[in-house]
């Protein structure tokens, strides 16, 4: 064990903030403990987790993301946009169309550039999966769409989708801003129906092209945005005939807005990517 100065960049997409660590020239150890340490908003840098940006043999770069509790995630739609911004603006890849390797596969990104700065990114997020076994959800049903589920003595109508990571979606008529999410979120995350835990989205449909949602992310708690969650919500809404296919949907989140389209080729997500600050911190590696 030794002390080392760690270079980091703090970025966010729609308020979903991560600490980004360029790992092209160094290999980090104990990343789970490092994620927990750095993500602490009082004693660390503060964020929803950390993202390691690495070399890839199959894409322009590789992204590994870790939640604030140290658990490794498969994919984060808001984080991958920031990775695209980093690799372009630091001349790792001087193209507008790039590929990023993730734990849930290779994702294609189109960078929207103004004055040599990446202002937003469109990501091909892949096709949603509704198969309970693949999400995974323990159920006698092969597909979970608008199915009743008892959570802490209350019955919710739940739809489940995988976007490379698992999501449980609850469409609601009441104002979601009044939900006691800190109280009910953990009951969903650790419910026995979800062996790998679950990300949970609570959703209000405003009109045929606008929805509002709040998200409880496994390993991080309530976050201001979730890109895979927004895609999962739109996919479930289209599958249950609440929204139309091939129509861009504005998803309003606590931290900003994402624009999601459910196409026959898969989900498209467009959103911002913002660098907040960069710095160095002494850590044990």
TrEMBL record:
Enzyme Commission code: 5.1.1.7
Recorded GO MF terms: diaminopimelate epimerase activity
Residues annotated as catalytic: 76, 76 (proton donor), 226 (proton acceptor)
Localization (cell): Cytoplasm
Binding site for substrate: 16, 67, 77-78, 165, 199, 217-218, 227-228
Entries under Pfam families matching the protein: DAP_epimerase
Quaternary structure note: Homodimer.
PANTHER family, per database record: DIAMINOPIMELATE EPIMERASE, DIAMINOPIMELATE EPIMERASE, CHLOROPLASTIC
Protein name, entry field: Diaminopimelate epimerase
Native source species: Amedibacillus hominis
């Amino acid at each position: 064990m030794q002390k080392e100065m760690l270079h980091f960049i703090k970025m966010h997409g729609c308020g979903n903030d991560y600490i980004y660590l360029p790992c092209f020239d160094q290999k980090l150890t104990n990343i789970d403990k490092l994620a927990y340490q750095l993500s602490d908003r009082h004693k660390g840098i503060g964020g929803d987790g950390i993202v390691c940006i690495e070399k890839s043999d199959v894409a322009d770069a590789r992204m590994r993301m870790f939640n604030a509790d140290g658990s490794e995630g498969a994919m984060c739609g808001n984080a991958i946009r920031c990775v695209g911004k980093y690799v372009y603006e630091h001349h790792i890849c001087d193209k507008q169309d790039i590929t990023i390797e993730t734990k849930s596969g290779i994702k294609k990104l189109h960078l929207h550039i103004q004055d040599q700065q990446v202002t937003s990114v469109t990501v091909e997020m892949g096709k949603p999966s509704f198969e309970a076994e693949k999400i995974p959800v323990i159920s006698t049903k092969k597909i979970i769409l608008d199915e009743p589920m008892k959570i802490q003595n209350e019955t919710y109508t739940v739809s489940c989708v995988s976007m490379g990571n698992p999501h449980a979606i609850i469409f609601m008529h009441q104002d979601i801003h009044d939900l006691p999410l800190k109280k009910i979120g953990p009951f969903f995350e650790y419910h026995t129906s979800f062996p790998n835990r679950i990300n949970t989205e609570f959703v209000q449909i405003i009109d045929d092209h606008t929805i509002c949602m709040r998200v409880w992310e496994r390993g991080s708690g309530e976050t201001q945005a979730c890109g895979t969650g927004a895609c999962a919500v739109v996919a479930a809404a289209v599958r249950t005939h609440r929204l139309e296919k091939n129509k861009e949907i504005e998803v309003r989140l606590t931290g900003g807005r994402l624009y999601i389209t459910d196409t026959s080729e898969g989900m498209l997500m467009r959103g911002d990517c913002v660098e907040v600050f960069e710095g160095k911190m002494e850590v044990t590696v």
